[in-house]
Design a protein that fits this description.
With about 220 residues, this protein is α+β, with helices and mostly antiparallel strands. It has 2 domains: about 1-40; about 70-220, Glucose Permease (Domain IIA), CATH 2.70.70. About 15% of the residues lie in helices and about 30% in strands. The chain is built from 2 helices and 12 strands; from the N terminus they run αβαβββββββββββ. It has helices at about 1-35, 95; strands at about 80-85, 100-105, 105-110, 115, 125, 130-140, 145-150, 155-165, 170, 175-180, 195-200, 205. Strands 1, 4, 5, 6, 7, 8, 9, 10, 11 and 12 form a 10-stranded antiparallel sheet that branches. It has a two-stranded antiparallel sheet with strand order 2-3. The chain is globular and about 70 Å long. It starts with a helix and ends in a 15-residue tail after the last strand.
Length: about 220
């Protein structure tokens, strides 16, 4: 009889625990059904320990846009080419004035450009600015001449060339080859291969020396 009573007591204790567990389960699933709209969840939220895939786009780098007005005017050659004649200006130093006139046809005329030479060598002439070739002529006085029109109403005239492969209408970049220095009737008093270099702004000749190293936007009369 005692053994039977112990079994009943044990069963009663286990039944109470089972009832409690059953009630907790009922409450849990009831709440879960309410929060999920009456349907059991089909997936579980990602925990912090789980790896997440994040799609990122590669950082974009801005490419600077070339502005022709920012281009710097450079001398039309590389190396140790010398200035052998200057643009004529009445207020120039006296030693420069003596190298600012051209002896032609029995007269001294003011130089409207600059002349460059080195040891009577036919050095390579390069473009001081980018632009379009607007004229190429073998002038009987000025020699082979190439004219390049650039931004800001700037024209650069390369004369006394011995050769040039450029054609009218051709677009060129600063530093491109214009041709080779040579000789011409006008400037023959220099008695050397040279480049006669002139610059126009708004159709008026200006002193090239004042504009070397300046941006196109700052080149004004």
């Amino acid at each position: 009889m005692k053994k039977l009573m112990k079994k009943v007591a044990a069963w009663s204790s286990e039944t109470k625990v089972g009832v409690v567990i059953g009630l907790v389960a009922i409450v849990f699933f009831t709440v879960l059904a309410i929060t999920t709209g009456g349907e059991p969840p089909t997936s579980f939220p990602t925990t912090s320990s789980q790896a997440t895939s994040i799609t990122t786009s590669a950082p974009t780098t801005s490419i600077p846009v070339f502005n022709p007005l920012d281009e710097i005017m450079e001398k039309p050659f590389n190396g140790n080419v010398q200035t052998v004649r200057y643009f004529f200006e009445t207020d120039a130093p006296s030693e420069q004035l003596s190298k600012s006139v051209v002896y032609y046809d029995g007269n001294y005329e003011p130089s409207l450009g600059m002349d460059f030479a080195i040891n009577n060598t036919q050095f390579t002439v390069i473009a001081s600015l980018s632009g379009e070739v607007t004229n190429k002529v073998n002038d009987p006085i000025m020699g082979l001449t190439v004219t390049v029109a650039s931004e800001n109403n700037i024209e650069i005239i390369y004369s006394s060339l011995s050769s040039s492969d450029l054609q009218i209408g051709q677009e060129i970049k600063k530093g491109d080859i214009i041709g080779k220095a040579g000789e011409a009737v006008f400037g023959s008093d220099l008695d050397t291969n040279h480049l006669h270099f002139r610059v126009k702004i708004d159709q008026e000749y200006v002193n090239p020396q004042k504009y070397f190293g300046k941006a196109v936007k700052d080149i004004k009369k």
